[in-house]
Amino acid sequence: MSIVRRVQLTGRSTYIISIPKEWARSLGITRGSKVFVDLLPDNSLRIRAEPKLADIKLIKIIDLRRDQSIATAIREFIAAYIAGYDTFKIYYDESSIGALRDFRKFIESRAANIIVSEEASSSLTYKIVGAPRPMSVVDALSWLYRLVNMMFAEVIKGIRSRNLEVLSSVIERDNVVDKAFLVVVRNLSSTMVGAGTIDSLGLISQAEALHYYRAFKTIERIGDHIALIASRVSKLLESNTIIRDDLVEVLEESMNYFSDIAKSLIKIDIDTSRRVALDIEQFRLKIRELGRIYTDIEYHDIIMSLSRILDYTIDLAETAFDIVSIRGVSETIYSAY
After folding, report:
1. What's the confidence (pLDDT) of residue 31?
2. Of the four listed, 14, 161, 209, 232, which is most buried by Cβ atoms within 10 Å?
3. Per-block average pLDDT, block size 10, for the chain (337 residues)?
């Protein structure tokens, strides 16, 4: 809803506008109250009341007693965690002890800054502790990129050395990527709903947030497929299968493509995104050829995951195009003011 106000002049140089009485009353704003005026990158102003975060209690109830699948419970938790909930109350009974065990294992391995604050015979309460350090979208992208690129490098290292422990560590590291993803998306979400300003994220306009979320999720998905490759390679090595050099070569090339595209997205280097995306289109032909050569199920899964990684890498390149386009529109609109 838009409300029109006329600008008034008080004294010789101070411009003022009145604020809606209904809005002030709903927030308890009276004479002498402090309000914050944020100057946004699009030259608009946002007026907000003094934060009273200590009075805000965001509690998510998850009931494992309702014959609810553990997968559904986990999805509910992830959605609430990302949205900014800080307290999670879990209800269970004797029939759901197994589900509770699996649920706790997931939360404690994937969610950051979370502790058990209360435990009873039929309920369990988790709380988020400590305020996370504000993180720009560029810092968030860089963090996720470094984690996933290291997974890629370790898979190749594990294959060359035939080291199952290295490959096992890659699979475990996927949990770290999942945890980092939840942290950066929670940071993005909480800022967009008013806990911060978009300039603290390094955004030019709110529209960019959608595309950065897409990039975060894409990199997290690439990590999932690298972990799957590590798992399938481990099975091949356990059966004393020799991993062919051409498979290692395409893994290295795929890693290089991912690295180039991720860095170009971080820098919004559209020329590199354009060039590497075209190279990947040609490289896909090589992957398809390998798919015809390898018929073993483990090899097939590896080739399919490589194909998906390339698809996701193209998605990252397209995200760079999207952000450049959004910024072009924003700059055109803002320059008209």
Report:
1. 77
2. 232
3. 77 77 76 74 70 70 85 93 92 90 91 91 90 83 97 95 95 94 91 74 86 96 97 92 87 96 96 95 87 77 93 96 90 68
- What distance in Å separates the CA atoms of residue 337 and residue 221, rounded to the nearest whole number? 41
The count of other CB atoms within 10 Å of the CB of residue 14 is 8
Beta strands in the chain (DSSP E): 8-10, 14-16, 35-39, 45-49, 59-63, 87-91, 114-119, 123-128
Do the beta carbons of residue 141 and residue 164 sit within 8 Å?
no
Residue tagged 């995200």 (tokens): 319
Q: Are 299 and 330 in the same domain?
A: yes
Please give the backbone phi and psi of residue 280, each rounded to the nearest 5 degrees, phi first: -65, -40
Predicted local confidence at residue 196, as pLDDT: 66
Q: Which two structure tokens, joined as six digits, stand for 279?
A: 């190279």
Strand-strand pairing, 35-39 and 59-63: unpaired
Half-sphere exposure at residue 314, Cβ-oriented, CA atoms within 13 angstroms: 13
- Rounded CA-CA distance 235/267 in Å is 38
In this predicted structure, what is the pLDDT of residue 155? 96
Q: Cα–Cα distance between 104 and 83 in angstroms, integer?
A: 20
pTM value?
0.82
CA–CA separation, 58 vs 297, rounded Å? 47
Write down the pLDDT at residue 34.
79
Q: Domain check: are 304 and 331 in the same one? A: yes
Q: Do residues 180 and 326 share a domain?
A: yes
Same domain membership, residue 61 and residue 30:
no
Structure confidence at residue 137 (pLDDT): 93
Give the structural domain span for 34: 8-52
